[in-house]
Specification:
Helices cover 44% and strands 25% of the residues. The protein is an alpha+beta fold.
Length: 142
Amino acid sequence: MRRRTVLAAVAALAAGSGCSRVVGDDPVEVRVRRAGEAAVENADVYCPLSATFLEAHPALERVLSSATTAPDGEWVVTDVDRETGEALRADLRERCGQVGAVYRYDGDEYRVRVLVDGHTVQNRNSSASSEAIRRGRPQERT
């Protein structure tokens, strides 16, 4: 009986702290980094990201703002719920026509990636966390 009480308390605590949302909604990773010279020169599509577009996608705006000061080649990352990520991805496709575009924001060029279970999807957004996380290159994190 005591075990059930403890388990119920832990479950209630986890649900109250938002853990069930993060785990239950299968979070998606939104990654942004400044585009390198070669990516900018070889891009087929350049897509401007307006202030209005970013207002509709605050998680993307947050990681873009953080990426402006990140070292070259460093991804700025945030996790978002699946629904928000799908909405961002659809809006980016509609706005830019393709996913592999070089995105222009505030006078600079960026790459944007959306990862679901470690696989690139296109673009996802909305964060359970309040801040973007800077991470090194993917090969450095393994």
